[in-house]
Structure prediction request, 296 residues.
Amino acid sequence: MSNKNKNSNGPKTDEGKAISSRNSVTHGLTARHWLDTNEQSLFDETVKNLIVDFDPQTSIEKMLITKMAECSVRLMRIQNRENYMFDLATVKTEDPAKTLKSFGNEDKDLHNTFISSMYQSIEINQEKIAEKLALMKEIDQHNISSISGWEYIYNNMPLIYRYLVTQCLQENITIKDFLTRESDQIIIMFVDPNDKDEESRSNKTLSEDEVVNNANTIQTSLIRKYLENLYTDINKELHIQLILKDYDKRHNLIKESALPDQKSIDLIQRYRTSNERQFSKSLGELLKLREMLSDV
Prediction:
């Protein structure tokens, strides 16, 4: 046995050879037969053109021309596969999660909220962003754990006060009922015997005084919890707005730079290099043979 055979990295057993053969069929790059009529037609046409170019006179010349035609068709197949791989990589970038990941934020809840926002066609509103930033700033200026109750909000946090009152006026609901609804805590409510029943309140448009009526009886823990939730929600909303602002530009850049996985690229390059070498070798042998025949 020659040293070349001893050092061969190819499959040795019948099972290994069978697996290698199946792999060739799977990706088509090394298929021994043409994959479709287009490849067969391209091969036939290439052989005809090479015969015109070289006018082979011997069987060896014809064999080398056939080999060159085979390499040409396989090189075209490899190019097509590479094009498909890049097309597929581009299609995969359509997933919003790919673009969101590029922002460096792995918060799944934020991602889900953002994707929902996309489908709702939420537009960027600079005025609302400024308002929300001001609310966050005001909350940051105070220690939530030191807030002692509604009186503290009224005296020290005018933006939060106005925000809450506006929300309640829009929904025609009292501050107490609003905060109770917005909290995820179980709150023991103080019952005011002079308070009107729910039905009569719902049929009447509340004034600001009525909205803040009995606000001083709201539990401090309820107010603190609401401010914590508000801060978190505003922070998430602002993140979404910032992502929306830059999303289209970043998404297009990701699409334009999309690449197949490295393993696929390496595989394509290996087969391309192998076929280019085979083509060059066959061409060199053909030219050398023709030179030898011309000297006879």
In short: The chain has two domains: 14-93+260-295, 105-256.
